[in-house]
Amino acid sequence: MDSLSSHWIFLVFLACFPILILADAGFDPASVVTPINRDLYRTSADLMEEIEALVNRHPKKLSIETMESVNKGYEAQVAVVTYCRDRNEDDKSKFRILLTFGQHGRELITSELALRVLSILSEEEFLPKMDRKSMNNTLDKLIIKVVPMENLNGRKRVEAGDLCERRNGRGVDLNRNWSVDWGKKEKDYDPYEENPGSSPFSEPESQIMRKIALSFEPHLWVNVHSGMQALFMPYDHRNTTPDGASSAKMKALVNDLNYRHFQGHCMTGSGGGSVGYLAHGTATDYIYEIAKVPMAFTFEIYGDESAPVKDCFRMFNPTDQTTFKRVLNDWSAAFFTLFKFGPQLLGMANSNESVKLISMDDYLDGYLMSRRSRYGKKLEVFELGLQEIRSYFRLFLLSCVILMFMFCTRISKSKLQRPNASP
Ligand SMILES: [Zn+2]
Question: Which residues form the active site (predicted)?
């Protein structure tokens, strides 16, 4: 064997070595687990500290209280931030909104959105193209309660490494622990995902949320989740939407948000009818059916359906800065549209501006075209790039195998020839 070919073989071996090791270790790309990106996501402690500091900087608009509850030795604390411009929270003429984030531990992005919404409400951050006069007019007439992290104990388990945990600190799914149709199990019931608890409201977190909802009596409720992109309205336990005027208003609002902010990419309709499975004992069904809140929604703000099943951080949260920023920008803008049109649709705002919801026709008539270039192209290019990398990787693996085969054949040939060549 001459020295040139031995160098060549050595190089090929070096290139293939990591692949051989991975193959030997049973490497499976589907088993890759993305860790929490700490450049983008705060820890729960840092996030709550930041929210508290924000509230303290704006005492005329914001206040915070922590509610506690215990059940059989299991304790939970839920922080609630109230936005009310003159702090006159007893003013019954104001439109009341209750937003909750982080009901499922692994959906970290939702609590980041809570902070963004509060920062805009405090006027430390602004939406692009925001008309501040119109915004102030809207916000004057609102009281908004924000629960930034409903499931702090579950979130701590995620931060300790259990990245797929969605339940609370003792394994109960807080979005199955409410009383409407509680405990009913579908054929594909998985206790790791959907354990409803020992009885309705067995969990301190749900007890606290029910207490807030019943005492505050909101006109509008949003339960913010991630895992897909959707704007859901009741029902979760049936595959239909409710009848009546308030249901029609919810539909109109959801369609407007979808076309105005998400180019029609969000799934809409009843949670139970759209998501592919019925969910029993959910918060939004209780809030609509029992607490009689006229507008009740579940928003799903992000999901990566291409993520492997075990790669939960990636499945439920944006992992790169561009997507992270886009999700927070788009959804905070959607929330401020909701703050503006929600009261108008329910006839609770004496505004000079009439509700101008975007219809499907307006959308197809040009709205779509003007918005498409924003992110669509970039995502397409990004996905094409990924596809190319995958194809190159497959080609590389194939050539390594061929080269190894040639290498082995050559060695065995030279071994066979050696005795004959020797004197
Ligand atoms: Zn969720």
Answer: 300
